[in-house]
Every structure is written in C-alpha cells, then in structure tokens.
Design brief:
18% strand, seven-stranded parallel beta sheet, binds NADP nicotinamide-adenine-dinucleotide phosphate
Length: 222
C-alpha cells in the first residue's frame, strides 16, 4: 500500500485527504503543528509539533521518518490573510507569512523529505487559482496571490528537477471550499474537494508533470 504524507492534516482539506486516503488503504502520515480530536480519531500516524516554516521542525520530521519511504507527498498546508495596497506597510508581516507558508514551505518540505521519496513517486502542491496571473480578473489579495504564483513557479522547476527520478509534480487548485480559510463559505465541502483532488493525483504522471489543474480536472492558465 502506498505511503502518503500530508501537511496541514489536522483540519480542512488536509484532514479530508487523510481520512479518504486512509479509507482507500494508504498508510497516511498526517503532519501538523497540533493534532485535532478528529485527526486523532482516524488512527493514522500523526506527526505533530511540525511548523513547516521552521528549519528545526523540518529536520525533526525527516529524523522521525527514518526508514520510511513516501510514495505521495501532499503539500497542503497554507494560510490566507487579507491584504490591500493601502495597508501594505501595516501588513508586511502577513505578506511575509504567506510567502513563507504558501511559497517557501512546500519547497522546503519537499527538499527535507527528498531522501524519503520513492523514485516514481508523486509530489503535489495544493495551490490556488488565485495564483494564476491570467485568471486574475478581480485584483486584490496581493499577498495570497503572490505567494501562490510563486509556488506555481517552484512547482514547475521541481517537475523538471525530479523527472529523472520518475517523480511527477502536480499543482492542484481544490475549488472554493468551505473551510476555516474561507470562513466556511464556498461552493463545496472539504470531502468533495478531497475526492476530486485524489482523482487528479491518481491521474498525475510524467506526461502531465508540472501542470496546473483545477480539482475538477480543467487545466488552469498560468
Ligand atoms: N478553502 C479554499 O477555498 C481553498 C481554495 C484554494 C486553495 N486552497 C488551499 O488549500 C490548502 C488547504 O486549505 P484549507 O482550506 O483546508 O485551509 P484551513 O482549513 O485553514 O487549513 C490550513 C491548514 O494549514 C496548516 N498550516 C498553516 N500554517 C502552517 C504552518 N506554518 N505550519 C504547519 N501547518 C500550517 C493549518 O494548521 P493549524 O491548524 O496549525 O493552523 C491547517 O492545518 C491551502 O494550501 C489553501 O491555500 C484552499
């Protein structure tokens, strides 16, 4: 059975990915800062105490996983804080936080766990269509958009770099999902988003590596 590591697995989309993949027979490693009652209730392996922006924590995670081989690495953890042009000077910490969590951390987590990833495995980044420059028809949300555009760039470079190990990299938008991030507004619930994402991850291959897709299967423009 495949082993799948998911960041941000204590709630939201990450929790649903953990739940559904466990049901599908994966050995799930649920990474989080702090576990939740629902995650503890799943009975999957939980690696808590990991802030994905902290180098020490990433080293700790890699150490704890000594001897573990990972088939799917799902970089799901993310953060959204509102940002505006007018308030940029007051919001600089939030701009930096979103860059740290949404853009840098998926790359750092992937690097930290590279030795655990099997050849022929998959690396997924849960990005957002808000990171699409071509699809930006409404403006605003500077920090979140910039961070997701940046991680899209990183994902394409990763796809090139990991291809010779047969590792495919997918950039997936989950849809507009009712989670804490959206104040529980949106078009779909996390269970539906997770089910669609899993279908897309199953389809992901070296032929489609580096692509940017909606969880509903549509390709998204950069
Ligand atoms: N919901 C949507 O409509 C939507 C749309 C497009 C893209 N996305 C993307 O989908 C992914 C999941 O979002 P969601 O809606 O499930 O959000 P969510 O319910 O707010 O969950 C976010 C998760 O990320 C974790 N996280 C944040 N900062 C972290 C850090 N520094 N270290 C470790 N974990 C951290 C959170 O952990 P804590 O509990 O410790 O805070 C939580 O588990 C994100 O990448 C998001 O950008 C969501």
């Amino acid at each position: 059975m495949p082993t799948t590591l998911i960041t941000g697995a204590n709630r939201g989309i990450g929790f649903e990915l953990a739940r559904q993949l466990q049901t599908a027979g994966h050995d799930v490693i649920a990474v989080c800062r702090r576990s939740s009652a629902e995650l503890d209730g799943l009975g999957v392996r939980v690696e808590a105490g990991i802030d994905i922006t902290r180098r020490d924590d990433l080293q700790t995670l890699a150490r704890r996983l000594s001897g573990v081989e990972i088939d799917w690495l799902i970089n799901n953890a993310g953060v959204l804080r509102g940002s505006t042009l007018d308030a940029i000077e007051e919001q600089l910490d939030d701009f930096r936080l979103q860059y740290e969590v949404n853009a840098l951390a998926p790359l750092r987590v992937t690097r930290a766990l590279l030795g655990h990833l099997v050849d022929g495995g998959k690396v997924v980044i849960i990005t957002s269509r808000m990171g699409s420059i071509a699809d930006n028809t409404s403006g605003g949300q500077y920090a979140y958009r910039m961070s997701k555009a940046a991680v899209n760039t990183a994902g394409v470079s990763l796809a090139h770099e990991l291809a010779d190990r047969g590792i495919a990299v997918g950039l997936l938008h989950p849809g507009y999902v009712r989670t804490g991030m959206t104040g529980h507004t949106g078009h779909i619930d996390p269970d539906e988003a997770a089910a669609h994402l899993i279908q897309r991850i199953e389809e992901l291959s070296l032929e489609t590596t580096g692509s940017f897709r909606h969880a509903n299967g549509e390709g998204l423009p950069w």
